[in-house]
Specification:
It contains five helices and eleven strands; from the N terminus they run βαβαβαβββαβαββββ. By secondary structure, the chain is an alpha/beta fold.
Length: about 200
């Protein structure tokens, strides 16, 4: 299966156009959160992805809530091809995915940010016994989670879940300064995606 995965679109018209073009010839597109900015412009951001050539599986970032993302996805032409995961999983052509969005741990950004505590994330991730791909907005603690100041701001709950579940991939975003970074937790490759996206070949 050929998968295009990205994060942190933040309403960028140019990035969305590039992703739509790159989705030609793919079987699945994965969006790891932050489609809009500060809870504003989500409908418009999702509409930019209406031309994707493959189904989209998405998690909410801290810039949109799960309910807001589901509502916006339903309003997209062809939106029946969009699946929103948040503490839930799905299967696509034999590939098992589990998703959890939001900022984890709680961010310093204020009331607009959709965040979870480590304890809340741990509870949500406990529902996943097995997966081929974890779709996350926040990165795990200590990997692809460094700010421009060098601060490690990833999630301990996510890191523990990756170690326990041992998926083939864990996709994330959220920390812009770490876009494109990759690393391993056990046998799992962790990738902080960014809006340019990456293409992966995954056999179910």
């Amino acid at each position: 299966m050929r998968i295009l995965a990205f994060s942190d679109l933040h309403g960028s018209v140019s990035a969305a156009r590039a992703l739509v073009a790159r989705s030609a010839g793919t079987d699945l597109v994965i969006g790891a959160g932050d489609f809009c900015n500060m809870r504003q412009g989500l409908d418009e951001a999702m509409a930019l992805l209406a031309g994707l050539h493959a189904p989209l599986v998405a998690v909410p970032g801290n810039a949109e809530s799960a309910d807001e993302l589901r509502a916006a996805a339903a309003g997209v032409e062809g939106g029946a091809g969009i699946t929103v995961l948040h503490g839930t999983g799905c299967e696509v052509a034999g590939l098992r995915l589990f998703g959890l969005g939001y900022g984890i741990p709680v961010t310093p950004f204020g009331a607009w940010s959709c965040d979870m505590t480590e304890a809340q994330a741990d509870t949500a991730l406990a529902g996943c016994a097995a997966a081929d791909i974890l779709v996350l907005h926040s990165p795990p603690k200590g990997l692809a989670d460094r700010t421009s100041a060098g601060q490690s701001v990833g999630s301990t709950a996510i890191r523990a879940a990756i170690a326990r579940i041992a998926p083939r991939y864990a996709f994330c975003g959220h920390i812009h300064d770490s876009w494109g970074e990759r690393g391993m937790i056990g046998t799992t490759e962790v990738v902080n995606l960014g809006p340019a996206g990456h293409v992966f070949e995954v056999t179910p």
